[in-house]
Write a structure and sequence with these properties.
two-stranded antiparallel sheet; mainly alpha; 174 residues
């Protein structure tokens, strides 16, 4: 808020109110003449200046948008750039060993301990390496490394397969 500009607008509004009320206080009769119309214009101009001053930035804090080296504007600009330039990772977290997964063919949710998709009856693929999972030692495991799906240490390969109609893969991750 630009206080000096708002103060000028407030003074104009008060002067306009006094100019309207002064003839009524002196003569006890309200008169409509050219002075009343001019006073209305002064009142409207005062309101416009008052609202413009309330909306304008404070010149003690900002100097031409920080061109002259205002430290407050420089710090806020650096903070905005730091937020904008944060690198985003495609994977937010590593999958847990008991986390459900979606079928690559029909996008149905499959619990962690089920081998085949309940909808299309196709065997699941490992989230890490993309190879088929098997029942080994009473659990669903990745066949090449014989580990749980979340602990698979096979070389990472992007899984391929037909997508169901209407489902798009976003991003390049698994």
């Amino acid at each position: 808020m630009n206080r000096s500009l708002a103060l000028v607008g407030l003074v104009l509004v008060i002067v306009a109110i006094l100019l309207v009320s002064l003839p009524f206080l002196v003569t006890s009769a309200f008169q409509i003449n050219d002075a009343l119309y001019a006073t209305g214009l002064v009142f409207l101009a005062g309101l416009v200046i008052l609202f413009q001053g309330a909306r304008a930035p404070d010149p003690t804090l900002t100097t031409v948008g920080g061109i002259l080296g205002n430290p407050i504007v420089d710090e806020s600009r650096k903070a905005e750039e730091a937020v904008i330039n944060v690198p985003r990772s495609p994977v937010r977290y590593a999958p847990g060993p008991r986390e459900p997964v979606n079928c690559r063919y029909c996008y149905t949710g499959i619990p962690w301990d089920v081998l085949n998709c309940p909808r299309c009856s196709r065997p699941r693929q490992c989230r890490s390496c993309g190879k088929q999972l098997y029942f080994l030692a009473g659990a669903v495991r990745c066949a090449p490394c014989v580990r749980n799906e979340a602990e698979c240490n096979c070389p990472r390969v992007r899984p391929t397969g037909p997508r169901p109609p209407g489902v798009r893969r976003l991003g390049g991750g698994v």
